[in-house]
Amino acid sequence: MTSLTVVVPTHGRAAMLGECLDSIVSQAGGHVAQIVVVSDIPDPDARSQALARDGQNGIAVTYLERLDGSPGVSASRNAGTELAEGGAITFLDDDDLWEPGMAAALAHAFDDQAVDFALTAMQDQGRSRWLTVRPGLDAAAYLDQGAFEFPRGGNIAVRATVWAEGPGFDATLPSGEDVDLVASLLLDGRRYAAINAVAVVQRSHGDVRLSTSAHQQLEASQRLLARYAPVMLRRTRRYYRFKVAHARWRLADSPAEKARAGAVMLFFVTRHQLRRLAAAWRSR
Predict the structure, then answer these.
(1) Which residues on adjacent β-strands are paired with residue 117?
(2) How confident is the model at residue 211 (pLDDT cuts 50, 70, 90)?
(3) More confidently predicted of 215 and 38
(4) What's the pLDDT tens digit per position in 94-111?
(5) What is the predicted pLDDT for the residue at 280?
């Protein structure tokens, strides 16, 4: 049976971290061997939450404060993997939860030696809907799903030997690092398991998420578009160009800049609606 290391990045949310860790240590079956909690700020409360659970259900819990290098969730995830001892490494953000049975589902998936990584369903608590993973996607189809169904870093698990051969999360990307990681794995010919019977629960809360500002979205969308445009489907490229225009519209300092960005957004929306009307007409 494949053992799991769970890397949990955290940033000043000790109470939510404790609930997140409880959702891991309460998993049945003994599949989780290790949890590595990584904070990019000094946080005595997070340390206490982590170490209070060390040894529960036979799980070793390590707490790491990463005060040098790039701040942010990607660098914290990468740092946590350096301490990983399990046969597979999975990630869970401090504001997310595992449903019961997640550890068993992941461990069983990696018992198939043909599986290089796994993607799990996510339940977006704020919108009360499931984000499911389609099996057998290539990079172009995954990027399309990534654009329209918003996968998160917390629903990715990678076999430890595969992780050791790759670059990890791109810590220079302000957001979209999860889509980038999976796309790069697929382009390398890696195979994945789709787990939809259980889900990661993304909790709705008032705290600011770490990659939601317009500046971050603009930079991330531009870089992902530049990196993957040659393999993207046309509608995915349109989606990312719309995201770039929307971020520029939000950041515009003058009415003229706002009008230019708005015109680009209107162009993409109008073209999308015309395509839908044309498809409906052809189907008559």
Answers:
(1) 158, 192
(2) very low
(3) 38
(4) 999 999 999 999 999 999
(5) 56
With vertex at residue 271, the alpha carbon angle to CA 268 and CA 277, rounded to the nearest 5 degrees, is 140
Q: Token pair of 82, please?
A: 């350096």
Q: Which two tokens stand for residue 72?
A: 């942010």
Indicate whether 266 pLDDT > 60: yes
Assign residue 29 a region: left if phi > 0, alpha if psi is -120 to 50, beta otherwise? Answer: left
The token pair that represents 33 in the structure block: 């061997």
Amino acid at 44: P
Neighbours of 219 (CB within 10 A): 18
CA–CA separation, 263 and 245 (whole Å): 9
The tokens describing 35, both together, are 């949890």
Q: Are 168 and 78 in contact (CB under 8 A)?
A: yes
pLDDT at 230: 96
Position 162 pLDDT exceeds 80: yes
Q: Is 61 helix (H, G, I), strand (E, B) or coil?
A: strand
> What CA–CA distance (Å, rounded) separates 85 from 62?
11
Calpha distance 31→279 (Å, rounded): 49
Q: Angle at the Cα of 233 (from 247 to 194), degrees rounded to 5? A: 95
Instruction: Map out the domains of the chain with their CATH numbers.
Output: 4-202 (3.90.550.10), 214-282 (no CATH)
Q: What is the pLDDT of residue 102?
A: 97
Residue 203, burial from CB neighbour count under 10 angstroms (0-12, 13-18, 19+): middle
**Distance between CA atoms of 33 and 58, rounded to whole angstroms?**
7
> Is pLDDT of 284 > 90?
no
Q: In Å, what is the CA distance from 47 to each residue of 123, 201, 207?
A: 28, 23, 20
Please tell me the predicted confidence (pLDDT) of residue 73. 92
Q: What is the DSSP letter of 2?
A: -
